[in-house]
Design brief:
25 strands; 5-stranded mixed sheet; alpha/beta; single chain; globular
Length: about 600
């Protein structure tokens, strides 16, 4: 069958790849499989239940889950195949943001995973006039459960099939509210065609392992499915008949990887950084000969000229003694890691590639559903985000901004025609807000976010993301934000890697303890990190060099509002949060 609407993926998957483990979720310590047939039947029953509740095409239904689970997949299919519009929402945002999104989208029903999210929604339910009901996946005494909607439906799918036939590929399928590094989130309207075209064009870039049939491939999914990156892949995996295992949480990733032994995983750069940091700490703390072998192997890895299988005696020995263990740590069967959401430092990318762990870095935005370009096994260039998809036209504007036109570009911002018009060129290209270039071999390279670039008082442009990615090569630096717009020089607010700083202080005989605030006040630690910055400055132009730093006294995270749910810095909020440190660096307050 031809795939034209998003829900067609699920029905084709059952027709072509009928299987017992289409989705697998862990409940109370046990992995529970859902077959492709059971998945279709459950979704049909829920669709029937929603219809009996009065759901009509175009009605909005919110989905909020702490961790992706099979119920989310069932609800997604049930909503889309009757022409309703899904509104996936990040679980970590505030009740105020829930209220804003629910009212903006005019949400009719909401399905949540657990009591914590339910309590946040209940706080604002009275402030959302359109909200008729809230149901939970977990059994919560005295609260409506999603099975009540399931039980309203029946096995007769005739009515659902009739409705599905009327759904046009260009119809609105979902409204995704961007996490937003500034201001209120925007509702990005995405059609069936937008996502379907992106899945089919991206599918060609996914490598296959020789001897591994698609229907035998296992996925471990742990990124938020409310984010377009993971969601598009969710459909891509269905398109190939892969089995999706939903991880319990990021904290249990290590345990889940050992259990599932995945062939494919999607990751964000921050996760790769954390994995490497853990590997490095373990390797260097082993002591004696083990640490020497580890560091020697890293040197061999770094010196390797061509990405690929080890060649030559040194590389073969290093692979057997060290890098084989890296692959085993990821389950031993990984075909590739699919990396997106932010820029991955080339040094880390190269290191994992040379360790036999393929990382396919790509690029896109919510507004492009999301992939604009992505590397492939056949055409892979570290430091790039690959070639643009075949069905997209990418144009670099005179100021370096990347613009794109094609079937996966969104329909517009919900209820905001003016803002929609503002992000398109006169000839219909979507303006990504990113600066980049396409090299002579057709690979796209991202330089920085246009909005994040700034000019010093001396008129010099600074691209902070490039500098920040280089700085995070330091074991002492967990996060760093380069500042200095309109100022005479660039400076930086640094969030140290407090675990590494603690271990370093203990080795130095410094009694600094483990409290981030006390560590950040240490003159010794600041001086040590300044040495790291001095080294970084040797690789930068005079106008880019960081002149002063201040240490942040806490970990930047989603919970304290300093990072987005996809772990990007909220620059304006961070700057305001550390206003005193900013003013101290620029002499605007007493030291």
């Amino acid at each position: 069958m031809a795939i034209r609407r998003i829900f067609d993926f699920a029905h084709q998957a059952h027709a072509e790849f009928p299987k017992q483990d289409m989705f697998v979720t862990k409940y109370e310590g046990e992995w529970k499989k859902t077959s492709s047939l059971e998945f279709i039947n459950l979704a049909n029953k829920v669709s029937g239940g929603l219809l009996k509740l009065g759901t009509k095409p175009g009605d909005k239904i919110a989905l909020i889950t702490s961790a992706t689970r099979t119920e989310w997949a069932v609800m997604d299919l049930a909503i889309l195949q009757i022409g309703a519009v899904s509104v996936p929402v990040y679980p970590t945002i505030s009740s105020d943001d829930f209220q804003y999104i629910f009212n903006d989208a005019e949400v009719n029903f909401c399905f949540v995973s657990d009591k914590e999210i339910l309590d946040k929604v209940k706080k604002i339910k009275k402030e959302v006039p359109t909200l008729q009901g809230v149901f939970s996946f977990d059994d919560i005494p005295g609260e409506p459960n999603w099975k009540e909607v399931l039980d309203l439906g029946d096995d007769d799918s005739t009515e659902i099939e009739d409705i599905a036939k009327t759904i046009n590929p260009e119809d609105l399928a979902t409204i995704i509210y961007t996490s937003g590094t500034t201001g209120k989130p925007k509702g990005v309207m995405i059609s069936h065609t937008n996502i379907v075209s992106n899945v089919l064009a991206s599918n060609k870039r996914i490598p296959r392992r020789k001897g591994l049939e698609d229907f035998d491939a296992r996925i471990l999914s742990f990124l938020p499915i409310c984010h377009i990156f993971e969601r598009m892949l969710f459909y891509l995996y269905q398109n190939n008949g892969f089995s999706l295992h939903f991880a319990e949480s990021i904290d249990k990733m290590g345990e889940n990887i050992k259990e599932v032994k995945p062939h494919y995983m999607s990751v964000v750069p921050r996760l790769i950084e954390k994995v490497y940091d853990k590997i490095y700490d373990k390797g260097t703390s082993a002591g004696g000969l083990k640490s020497k072998i580890f560091l020697w192997a890293l040197g061999v890895n770094k010196a390797k000229q061509n990405i690929g299988r080890p060649s030559g005696l040194k590389e073969i020995i290093a692979d057997k003694l060290v890098f084989k263990k890296w692959r085993e740590g990821l389950g031993g069967e990984v075909v590739t890691l699919i990396c997106g959401s932010a820029a991955l430092a080339p040094r880390l990318n190269k290191m994992f590639q040379n360790a036999g762990i393929m990382v396919l870095e790509g690029y896109g935005l919510t507004e492009t559903s999301p992939v604009i370009s992505v590397n492939s096994a056949e055409k892979l260039r570290v430091g790039s985000v690959g070639h643009p998809l075949d069905n997209l036209e990418v144009k670099i504007q005179a100021d370096g901004e990347i613009t794109v036109k094609g079937p996966s570009v969104f329909k517009g911002y919900y209820k905001n025609e003016e803002q929609t018009k503002s992000v398109f060129t006169a000839d219909g290209f979507f303006m990504t807000g990113d600066i980049g270039h396409i090299d002579e071999d057709g690979y796209l390279h991202i330089t920085d976010r246009k909005k994040e670039m700034f000019k010093t008082s001396g008129g010099k442009y600074i691209a902070p993301q490039v500098i920040e990615n280089q700085a995070k090569a330091s074991k002492f630096i967990e996060q760093i934000m380069v500042v200095g717009e309109g100022e005479k020089m660039p400076c930086a607010i640094v969030q140290p890697d407090f675990n590494h700083a603690k271990a370093w202080a203990e080795r130095k005989g410094l009694n600094l303890g483990a409290d981030p605030k006390k560590l950040s006040e240490s003159k010794e630690l600041k001086a040590r990190i300044e040495k790291e910055i001095d080294y970084l400055n040797t690789k930068l132009g005079n106008w880019e060099q960081i002149k002063l730093i201040e240490l942040a006294p806490e970990v930047w995270g989603v919970e304290n509002g300093l990072l987005t749910p996809t772990l990007k810095m909220k620059r304006k909020i961070i700057k305001e949060h550390y206003k005193d440190l900013y003013e101290k660096m620029y002499g605007k307050k007493d030291n």
